[in-house]
Amino acid sequence: MDKALGNATRLSLESTVRLRSGAAMPVLGFGVYQARGDDCKNAVKTALQAGYRHIDSAQAYHNETLVGAGIADSGVPRSQVFITTKFMPGHSVPTEDEVYDHLVKSTRRFTPSTPKPPDGYLDLLLIHAPRPNEEARAVHWKALARAQKEGWARDIGVSNFGVKHLRALPEPLPAINQIELHPWCQQRDIVKYCQDKGIVVQAYCPIVRADPNRLGDPTVVKIAEKHGKEVPQVLIRWSLQKGYVPLPKSVTPSRIKSNMDVFDFELDAEDMAALDSLDEGAKGACSWNPVDTP
C-alpha cells in the first residue's frame, strides 16, 4: 500500500492503495452516477484537470462514452487515469460469452478509437449487483476473470455484495467491494469481512447525495465547524480515515474541487467516535442497496 490508506497523517491526493494485480488505485475517486451529456463530459474534464486520477462509471449510468470523451478532452494521458466500470446483471442467468461481450462493449465505449480489447483496457471491472441468484453470479464472475486473464481488465471486483455473496464466489478473490458507506449506513459486517480477506472497500454515496437532512445533522455540522471545513469534506475525510476509497460525485466545478480539499486536516478520535455513533444500519441507506439479495 502506498502512502498507507489507514495512516491518516500521510494521506494526500496522490495516495494510492495496491490492488491484487499490484496496480495502484488512487484513494479518492470521482463518481459520475446520473451525470449526462455535456455535464458529464465537462465534469470528468474538470475533475482530471483539478487533480483527480480515478473515475468510477458503470454500464447502468449510460455515460461510459461521455467519460471517455471527458478524459480525452482533459489532456491527461489515459495511462494516468484509473478507470472503473461495472457490468449490470439482468434478471436471468446469461452465458459467460454474453457477459464477456458486454464487457468488451464497455471497453470500446471508453476508447472508441481502439478497435477491440486487448488493445484497450480497463483498470477495474465490477459486477454491479448480486442479482439474480448464485448461479448467475458465478457466470458473471467467470467472465470477469476471463477478461482479467486476457490482460485487458487489470483488476476485478464486485459492488453491493453482502457477506454471503462474497463467500459463494468462485476464485479469484475480488480486489474490490464497492458498497454504500457513510456515517448513517456503515454496513459493518460487510466491511469487516472484506478487510479480513484483503478486499479493498470503496464507498459510494459518501456525501449521502447531499441530502439536506443529513448534511444538517448537528453532530456533523459541529465537527465541520470545529475544523473550518464543509460537511461533505468531513464525510469524505471520515471515509478515508476508515480505510475506504470514497467516490464523491458532482457536476458543479466548485463542488468537484472542494470535495478533493480533504487532505489538510484530520478528524481526531472524538470526531470519529461521534460520526461512528450515527449508524442507522440498513435503514440509513440513501440509495439502492441490494446487499441482501437472495
Question: Could you characterize the architecture of this molecule?
Answer:
This protein has 294 residues and is an alpha/beta fold. It has a single domain, classed as NADP-dependent oxidoreductase domain (TIM Barrel, Alpha-Beta Barrel). Helix content is 38%, strand content 14%. It has eleven helices and ten strands. It has helices at 37-50, 64-74, 96-110, 134-150, 163-168, 188-197, 212-215, 218-227, 231-242, 253-258, 269-276, and strands at residues 16-18, 24-26, 30-31, 54-56, 82-87, 122-127, 153-159, 176-180, 200-204, 245-246. It has an eight-stranded parallel beta sheet with strand order 3-4-5-6-7-8-9-10. Helix 2 links the parallel strand 4 and strand 5 (82-87). Helix 1 (37-50) crosses helix 2 (64-74), helix 2 runs parallel beside helix 3 and helix 8 crosses helix 9. The chain starts with 15 loop residues before the first strand and ends in an 18-residue tail after the last helix. 46% of the residues are buried. The active site is at 61 (proton donor). Pfam families: Aldo_ket_red. This is Aldo/keto reductase. InterPro entries: AKR, Aldo/ket_reductase_CS, NAD(P)_OxRdtase_dom_sf, NADP_OxRdtase_dom. Substrate binds at residue 128.
